[in-house]
Specification:
This protein has three domains: about 80 residues, Four Helix Bundle (Hemerythrin (Met), subunit A) (Up-down Bundle); about 190 residues, 3-Layer(aba) Sandwich (Rossmann fold), CATH 3.40.50; about 130 residues, 434 Repressor (Amino-terminal Domain) (Orthogonal Bundle). Helices cover about 60% and strands about 10% of the residues. The protein has 20 helices and eight strands. Strands 3-2-4-1-5-6-7-8 form an eight-stranded mixed beta sheet, with helices on both faces. The chain is flat and about 80 Å long. It starts with a helix and ends in a 15-residue tail after the last helix. The structure holds guanosine-5'-diphosphate (GDP). The site of guanosine-5'-diphosphate (GDP) has 18 residues, from helix 6. It comes from Hominimerdicola aceti. InterPro entries: AAA+_ATPase, P-loop_NTPase, Signal_recog_part_SRP54_M_sf, Signal_recog_particl_SRP54_hlx, Signal_recog_particle_SRP54_M, SRP, SRP54, SRP54_GTPase_dom.
Length: about 450
């Protein structure tokens, strides 16, 4: 996974910082030297590292931090803040023009993931209700057209191709086709080379003139490290790019590109590719990336949030009640409300270590499920919540109708609840699914 090495090193530095009650300016400076090495090793560009360290040091050696009760934590927070600033604000918006179609031109070196990401983008926008058309303008590799057709089919998006003829003509005809057939989004897959050369740039410039794209997106492979930033700068100088898609962040990259692209080129990373599959694709979230880099940083926030939102007295009361009477659906509802107070499910899941494997789609499904469960419990009477065993088929139909769900959803909830109670019993907490008062033996 990307950033593993960097995360590990930073965590080592932070652990040492936190283990000290007091910090001196020299301690901070020593720690910053280590952070600097770690960032350089992760392939973050030198100038970016220098500026970053200067900023963090300046903010960290102030009295306020050094004299605080938790100076180590404060320094980590400053590093986190500055990492986020370095990557800019979350911004994955594409400005759709008033008059369709919106035209996105994809460019990048061969093998960067251009074709795959053209399809990923198309699939994402299709889900949002757009009617994308992919144009196959990468004509030098015969396999490229075939590949776009394959991924287009997977994304269930139309692909416009004219074989290996002049890509300028293909783009012209493709856009005309989109207008004729009501496609409101056109994504052009252009050719790439192994290196940037004049001929390629001239072709891309011509295509830009013909297509008048609303957005030129550069696809960059994160695995090429420092070179990713060089590629981005060259494409920007020659062609003018609007944004970057950073790919292959699932692989073992050192990740420096994610930290340097905006600072060096001034162009934001809008999306990141996390795998070969079409839904392994996400909007770029600097704060999420920073917490991934800091590894445990987010767990701290999560714990902080939990202590802020969960009232200790309430928690104790619930524990006592559960010992006494068991856990019923009222308690489940209460717990769900407590969790929701901490923020959206998405924000909570994203704070857990390993959460970068969870797709946005899965999180959304979880959120929908949570809402459904809440609605179902809210549609139950007090007696039903306390004693779910009384919920017969007639009651199930009423609950389903009341909560806008299906009887099968109600069945599933009851079954899951029963399993939860079984588990709790194993921990010595009584369950009263059948309305019995069961105490610990
Ligand atoms: P193009 O030459 O720029 O069009 O690149 P392709 O879309 O053909 O991608 C090159 C290779 O990288 C293919 O084998 C893709 O499956 C793979 N690939 C693309 N994006 C990702 C990604 O985000 N993660 C991983 N692991 N592989 C990717």
């Amino acid at each position: 996974m990307a950033f593993e090495g960097l995360s590990e090193k930073l965590n080592g530095v932070f652990k040492r910082l936190k283990s000290r009650g007091k910090l001196s300016e020299a301690d901070v400076k020593e720690a910053m030297r280590e952070v600097k090495m770690a960032l350089l090793e992760a392939d973050v560009s030198y100038k970016v590292v220098k500026d970053f360290i200067a900023k963090v040091t300046e903010r960290s050696v102030g009295e306020e931090v050094l004299k605080s009760l938790t100076p180590g934590q404060q320094v980590i927070k400053i590093v986190n803040d500055e990492l986020i600033k370095l990557m800019g604000e979350a911004n994955s918006k594409i400005n759709f023009p008033n008059k369709p179609p919106c035209i996105i031109m994809m460019c990048g070196l061969q093998g960067s993931g251009k074709t795959t990401h053209a399809a990923k983008l198309a699939k994402m926008f299709k889900k949002e209700g757009k009617r994308p058309l992919l144009i196959a303008a990468d004509v030098y590799r015969p396999a490229a057209i075939e590949q776009l057709k394959v991924v287009g089919e997977r994304a269930e998006v139309a692909v416009f191709e004219m074989g290996q003829i002049d890509p300028r003509k293909i783009v012209k005809e493709g856009i005309k086709h989109a207008k004729d057939y009501g496609n409101d989004l056109v994504i052009i897959d252009t050719a790439g080379r192994l290196h940037i050369d004049e001929e390629l740039m001239n072709e891309l410039k011509d295509i830009k003139k013909i297509a008048e794209p609303n957005e030129i997106m550069l696809v960059v492979d994160a695995m090429i490290g420092q070179d990713a930033v060089k590629v981005a700068s060259s494409f920007d100088e020659a062609l003018g790019i609007d944004s970057v898609i950073l790919t292959k962040l699932d692989s073992d990259t050192r990740g420096g590109a994610a930290l340097s692209v905006l600072a060096v080129t001034g162009k934001p990373i809008k999306f990141v590719g996390m795998g070969e599959k079409l839904d392994e694709f996400e909007a770029f979230h600097p704060e999420r990336m920073a917490s991934r880099i800091l590894g445990m940083g987010d767990m701290l926030t999560l714990i902080e949030k939990a202590t802020q939102t969960v009232d200790e007295k309430d928690a104790k009361k619930l524990a006592e009640k559960m010992q006494e009477k068991g856990f019923d659906l009222n308690d489940l509802l209460e717990q769900m409300k407590q969790i929701q107070k901490m923020g959206s499910m998405k924000s909570i899941i994203r704070m857990l270590p390993g959460a970068n494997k969870v797709t946005d789609e899965q999180v959304e499904q979880g959120e929908v499920q949570l809402k459904k469960t809440e609605a179902m419990i809210n549609s139950m009477t007090r007696a039903e919540r306390e004693k779910p065993a009384i919920i017969d088929p007639k009651r199930k139909r009423r609950i389903a109708a009341g909560s806008g769900t299906q009887v099968s959803d109600v069945n599933q909830l009851l079954k899951q609840f029963e399993q939860m109670q079984k588990m709790m019993k194993q921990f010595g907490i009584g369950g009263n699914l059948h309305g019995k008062k069961s105490r610990r033996n």
